[in-house]
Automatic annotation (TrEMBL):
<keyword id="KW-0808">Transferase</keyword>
<dbReference type="InterPro" id="IPR001348">
    <property type="entry name" value="ATP_PRibTrfase_HisG"/>
</dbReference>
<dbReference type="Pfam" id="PF01634">
    <property type="entry name" value="HisG"/>
</dbReference>
<dbReference type="InterPro" id="IPR015867">
    <property type="entry name" value="N-reg_PII/ATP_PRibTrfase_C"/>
</dbReference>
<keyword id="KW-0547">Nucleotide-binding</keyword>
<dbReference type="GO" id="GO:0005737">
    <property type="term" value="C:cytoplasm"/>
</dbReference>
<keyword id="KW-0460">Magnesium</keyword>
<keyword id="KW-0368">Histidine biosynthesis</keyword>
<dbReference type="InterPro" id="IPR020621">
    <property type="entry name" value="ATP-PRT_HisG_long"/>
</dbReference>
<protein>
    <recommendedName>
        <fullName>ATP phosphoribosyltransferase</fullName>
        <ecNumber>2.4.2.17</ecNumber>
    </recommendedName>
</protein>
<comment type="similarity">
    <text>Belongs to the ATP phosphoribosyltransferase family. Long subfamily.</text>
</comment>
<dbReference type="InterPro" id="IPR011322">
    <property type="entry name" value="N-reg_PII-like_a/b"/>
</dbReference>
<dbReference type="GO" id="GO:0000105">
    <property type="term" value="P:L-histidine biosynthetic process"/>
</dbReference>
<dbReference type="GO" id="GO:0005524">
    <property type="term" value="F:ATP binding"/>
</dbReference>
<comment type="pathway">
    <text>Amino-acid biosynthesis; L-histidine biosynthesis; L-histidine from 5-phospho-alpha-D-ribose 1-diphosphate: step 1/9.</text>
</comment>
<feature type="domain" description="Histidine biosynthesis HisG C-terminal">
    <location>
        <begin position="208"/>
        <end position="280"/>
    </location>
</feature>
<keyword id="KW-0028">Amino-acid biosynthesis</keyword>
């Protein structure tokens, strides 16, 4: 049985549970139970505070875990990383009151900065040659300038709305983060085997999230030209349509290139283009 530690409640929780479910793993989730065994996969889920997860995995209390890179690197445990998971994307940024004049990072020399990430902040300031007093607080960091605790803050930003609501402006990006899967370096061969199985499923889910299945009708004399425009795992599938002179082409396209490809294949003569999500993708 492999033990995975995930955040009990917060910005990582829902997506972490979704990922486990999308891997076809079932479990009963009650908000009061802090530990649950999966019913169809040798996995036990522990629900913890996110800050505790790297430590538990490093100590072997949990075998694997899901945590933000910001917390992992802050705690000096980056080497536990196994796989980036692509959700809970955010950045750690420096911010100052909106009305402050700010020209460069050197404006922070000698200032007080409140943060929950003193190590990441110190490394950033040292690299820029800036000396400031770092005040470590565990939450509600954005309030610090308005209560006279600090002149600047360094905290997590995603949409930026918390900064705006608190009269602050983002002035420097310190660190980019997303959720990652971490693992203890000392897993037994049995546990490593379960981790490999889980990773295989996670990668299939991740690949599928980025990809779309595309079907289109093409005049037979345009198949070659349209096929060249379509990326695919091997080559596009070509099936004859009931109408003479026409074929159906099937392929897989990446979400990032999607609109550009659609424009090109339409211009090349594609018609009746259908795009459908993919649930799993094994290559
Ligand atoms: N606004 C956001 N958008 C996207 N991801 C975020 C956001 N805020 C935080 N994160 C990411 O999610 C992680 C957990 O954030 P959250 O705010 O839930 O932590 P927390 O309050 O410290 O929770 P806990 O109670 O478990 O200690 C952060 O470390 C960061 O990686
Ligand atoms: O840029 P935004 O989209 O506004 O997000 C940023 C906010 O999100 C996080 O807090 P969260 O809302 O998770 O609450 P917490 O402070 O209780 O962790 C983070 O600490 C910021 O305060
Ligand atoms: Mg926390």
């Amino acid at each position: 049985m492999l033990r995975i530690a995930i955040q009990k409640s917060g910005r990582l929780s829902e997506e972490s549970l979704n990922l486990i479910r999308e891997c076809g793993i079932s479990f009963v989730n009650s908000s009061l139970k802090l530990k649950t065994e999966c019913t169809n996969f040798p996995l036990e889920i522990l629900f913890l505070r996110d800050d505790d997860i790297p430590g538990y995995v490093a100590d072997g209390v949990a075998d694997i875990g899901i945590v933000g890179q910001n917390v992992l690197v802050e705690e000096g445990k980056e080497e536990l990383t196994v796989e980036k998971l692509g959700f809970s994307k955010c950045r750690l940024s420096l911010a100052v009151p909106k009305s402050d004049e700010y020209t460069s990072i050197h404006d922070l020399n000698g200032k007080n900065i409140a943060t929950s990430y003193p190590n990441l902040l110190k490394a950033f300031l040292d690299a820029q040659g800036v000396q400031a007093q770092i005040h470590t607080i565990s939450g509600s960091v954005e309030i610090a300038p308005s209560i006279g605790l600090a002149e600047a803050i360094c905290d997590i930003v995603s949409s930026g709305s918390t900064l705006i609501s608190n009269g602050l402006k983002e002035v420097e990006r310190v660190f980019k983060s997303e959720a990652v899967l971490i693992a203890s370096p000392e897993l037994s061969p049995e546990k490593r085997g379960v981790l490999e199985k889980l990773l295989f499923r996670i990668q299939a889910v991740q690949r599928a999230r980025k990809a779309k299945y595309i079907l289109l009708n093409s005049p037979d004399d345009k198949i070659e030209e349209i096929s060249r425009l379509l990326p695919s795992i091997k080559a596009p599938t070509v099936l004859p349509l009931a109408e003479e002179g026409w074929s159906s082409l099937h392929s897989v396209v990446n979400e990032d290139d999607f609109w550009e490809i659609i424009e090109k294949i339409k211009a090349a003569g594609a018609q009746g283009i259908l795009v459908v999500p993919i649930e799993k993708m094994i290559i």
